[in-house]
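Forwarding the complex inputs:
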Amino acid sequence: MRTRRHPRQFLADRWAVAGGVVVAGFLLVAATASALTAVEGQDPYTYHLDALDDTGRPVGFGGGISGTHWFGVEPLTGRDLFAIVTHGAQTSLTVGLAATVIAMLIGVLVGVTAGFFGGWYDRLVSRAIDVLYGFPYLVFMIALGAVVSAKFPRTWLVVLVIGAFGWPTVARVVRGQTLALKHRTFVVASTAMGAGPGHVLVRQILPHLGVTIIVYTTILIPGLIGVEAALSFLGVGVPAPTPSWGRSIGEGVGWVQTDPMFLVFPGGALFAITLAFNLLGDGLRDLLDPRSVRRRPEAGARP
Amino acid sequence: MRRTRFLAGRLVSMLAVLVVISLLTYAVFFLLPSDPAQMSCGKPCTPDGLAQASAFMGFDKPWWQQYLDFVAGIFRGRSFGRGPAAVHCSAPCFGYSFQLNQPVTQLIWARIPVTFSIAIGAAALWLVLGVSLGVLAAVRKGTAIDRSAMAFAVAGVSAPVYLLGLLGILLFGFTLDLVPVSGYVPLTESPVDWAWHLVLPWCVLALFTSAVYARLTRGQMLEVLEEDYIRTARAKGLTERKVVGWHALRNVLIPVVTVFGSDLGQLLGGAIITERVFSMQGLGSLLLQAVGTGDLPLVLGTVLFSAFLVVLANFAVDVVYGALDPRVSETSG
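Prediction (whole assembly, two chains):
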C-alpha cells in the first residue's frame, strides 16, 4: 500500500531544502523590508538626483553601488534599489499569496463539488476548465485594466484578476482526486450508514485532499507571482510608485545597454523566488504524494 | 465516418465556446461602469452631446442588443451613425475605434503579422526542439543528457520570458553584436531580414518551453517503449531508429499535441511579452495602447479577436489530434 515517506527524506532532497530556505529568506526580507531599509538609511520613494549623471545614468560602479546605496540606484530617479527590491518582495509575496488563496478557494470548491456531485454540473465545470485552461488570460487581464473604475485599488484588482484565472489547474486535480475518493470504502460505508452529502464532503473527502491542496498551493504561488510580475512589466499591474520587481524590469528595458545592473537585482530576485518555490513544490510533491506521476512543472499559470 | 463525427462534435462545441466567451466578455465589459462615449464627447460635454455621441456609437442600446449588433457586424459588417457622417465597418467587423477613426479589424490586421511571426516560429522551434530533446533523453535514460534536460526544465519554468529576453539582448545583441535586438521587418520585404530579426525572440520564447516539452516527451516515450507492440516491432527485426522514430513517436505525440493545444493561450501571452521586450509593434502593443488611451471598442475587439483566434487554433489542434489518434472518436466523440 501507500508508503509514507519520512521527513528525513525531504531533508535528503537537497534541492527542495534549498528552495525552502530561500523561500523562508524572502519571507523574512519581505516582513522586515522597512526595518532593513531603515538600517541602510533609505526608503523606496525618495529621489536622489545627485547619484545620477546628466543622462540619468547612475554614477559609479555597478549602477551606483555604495555604502549608502547597497544595490545602487534606479536610473532617471535615483531611488534606492535595495529599498525597491526589498519592498518589491513585499509586493510580490502579498499579491502572489493573496491570489493563490483566491485561486485555491475557487479551485477546491469547484473541483470537489464537480467530482462529488457529477452529472451535468460536472460536465459543465469540466468544459469550463478546459476552455479557461487554454484561454489567453493575459490579454483579458490587460484589458480589464481599461474598464475597471480608476477608484478601485489597482493592487487588489490585480490580486482578484490573477486569482480568478488561476483556479482551473487546481479544480482539475481536485476533481480527479474527489472522483477517486468517492468510491473508496470508507466513503461508501459512511454513505451507507446514512451520512448526508454535506458530512461526507466536509468530514470524509476534504481531509484527504489536504496533501493535494498543500502541494498545489506551493506550485501555484510561483506561477502567480510570475503573472503579477508580467502584468507589472507590461505596465498594467501594480501601479507606481509601489515597488514591484516586474515594473522595475519593465523600466529596465530602456537601460539594458547603459545600466544593466538595474536589471540584475529585481530580475535575480524574481528568478530566485520562483525557482525556490518550484523546487520546494516539487520536493513536497515527491514527499507527500509519492505515487503522483511527475506532471509537467507548474502547468497552471505561466505568462 | 467516425472521424467526421468527431470533428463535427468538436466544431459544434467550438462554436458554443465562442458564443459563451464573447457573451461573457461583452457582459463583463459593459456591466463595469465605464462610458466610452464620454471620452469622445469633448469638453465641455453637454448632456445633449453625450447622448448624441452615445447614439452614434451604439452605446445607448441595452448590452444584449449591442452584443447582437457586434455579432452581426462580424458576418455582415455594420455602419455607425447616419447620413454623411456615418462610418462603415466592413465584415468581419470587430468594432470601430472612434479615437483612431479606423475599424478595429483593420488595426488588428496591421499588427497581426508581427505577433504571428513571433508565435508561430517560437511554437515550431519549441515543438521540434522539445520533442527531439525528450526522445534523446528517453533513449539515453540516466545519462548526463537526460539529467541536464530535466534540470533545465525546472529552471526553465522559473525564468520569465522577458528576463531571458533582456539577458539575450544584452549578451547576443550588445555584447557580442550578433543579432539585431529590436524592430520587425515584414516577411514580404525581405525574408532573410525577417528571420534575422526574429531569431532572438524565437529562441527566447521557445527555449525553456521546449524543456518542459522535453520532460513530457521523455516520460511518455519511456512509458511507450515498455509496451508490447514495441517489443513486437523489435522482434520483427525493425531497426531501433524505425521503432523509436515511427512506431513509438506516433503515440508519444498524442499527449504532446493535447498539451500544445492548451498552451496556445499562453503562447499568445508570451508573444505579447516578447513583442514588448524587442520593441515590436504587434497585437500586444496595440492592446496596451488601447488600454492606455481608454479606447474601449479597440480593447474589446482585440480581446474577442484573440479569444477567437485561440479557440480556432485549438480546433486546428483537435483536427491534428484526430488524425494522429484514430481512437478519439470512440472515447470523446
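Chain A touches chain B through 51 residues (CB under 8 Å).
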